[in-house]
UniProtKB/TrEMBL annotation:
Residues 194-271 form the Restriction endonuclease type II-like domain. It holds the Pfam family MTES_1575. It comes from Humibacter ginsenosidimutans. It comes from the Bacteria. This is DUF559 domain-containing protein. The lineage of its organism: Bacteria, Bacillati, Actinomycetota, Actinomycetes, Micrococcales.
Length: 279
């Protein structure tokens, strides 16, 4: 008989009893496993161990699974704004528990129980659910992230755009798998929509790779707090900026708060720098 603990662990600590029975765990052994305090039963059909993600457990308690932004976060994909726990719920589901603060449901018409980690929707469905709730620039940032982290494949990208309404097709040309951060994607898309030539992850001799180069000479770096807040990293950034100046380029850095709180202001700064001309 397979190890119930191992089977649950492979599924992120949360699985349906039917999933476990399919691999050979008997109903009796599952009851004993829960009765011994190794897992708790949720809505009768699920077992959860302490390893399970709290948001996933909560989604199951609410009668669904992680969807949209919540599923994406569990995949490690960039999501620009946290608007709450997204619970993907089968259409027609009834007698559902009351939602708490910062929780909401979506009812995808094509809802399907995923294989493996059944407690979250698949990556394509999660992105499709997100697309209906966010501005295009933030949707693109999440798609870029899914591709860059190899959570989504090229065929899945094609499937995603096939599912979305026709109005989203114009966005496909803006997708960039090489983008290494959501901030970079957001600034890149906004700059492209201005009509500027934007290159991404450009290797500059004796400097290294830079996030964006606009019109061939203006370097834009997007500095997330996680990687650019230390004194050591700031000193390294200054050395890189000096190296760019020596090569006849100009560099400007935008922080997280600027990009997320005042994107229009960031674009206005870039416009002003471009108008001033190349050094």
């Amino acid at each position: 008989m397979p190890s119930i603990a191992s089977e649950l662990s492979r599924r992120g600590g949360l699985a349906t009893r039917s999933q476990l029975r399919v691999v050979g765990c008997s109903a009796r052994s599952l009851r004993r496993f829960a009765d011994d305090g190794n897992a708790r039963s949720i809505r009768r059909s699920w077992l959860a161990t302490p390893q399970a993600e709290p948001d996933a457990v909560r989604a199951v308690e609410l009668g669904g699974i992680l969807g949209g932004e919540s599923a994406l976060r569990s995949f490690g994909v960039w999501v620009s704004h946290n608007t709450g726990l997204c619970v993907a719920t089968p259409p027609g589901a009834s007698h559902l528990p009351t939602l708490g603060d910062d929780e909401y449901r979506v009812y995808p018409h094509d809802f399907a129980w995923p294989e493996g980690k059944r407690w979250r929707t698949d990556i394509v469905s999660a992105l499709a659910q997100l697309a209906a709730r966010v501005e295009p620039v933030h949707f693109i940032a999440s798609v870029d992230s899914a591709l860059n982290t190899n959570v989504m494949t090229a065929p899945q990208l094609a499937d995603l755009f096939a599912r979305l309404p026709r109005r989203f097709r114009r966005l496909r040309r803006l997708i960039e798998p090489r983008a290494e951060s959501g901030l970079e994607s957001i600034v890149r898309v906004a700059a492209m929509l201005e009509g500027w030539k934007v290159e991404v992850q450009v290797a500059v001799p004796r400097v290294g790779r830079v996030d964006l180069v606009i019109n061939g000479w203006l370097v834009i770096e997007t500095d997330g707090d996680q990687w650019h807040s230390s004194a050591t990293q700031r000193a390294k950034d200054r050395r890189r900026d000096a190296g760019l100046v020596r090569r006849g380029m100009r560099c400007h850095r935008f922080g997280y708060a600027q990009v997320m709180g005042d994107l229009d202001g960031c674009i206005e700064i870039i416009r002003t720098l471009l108008a001033a001309g190349r050094p």
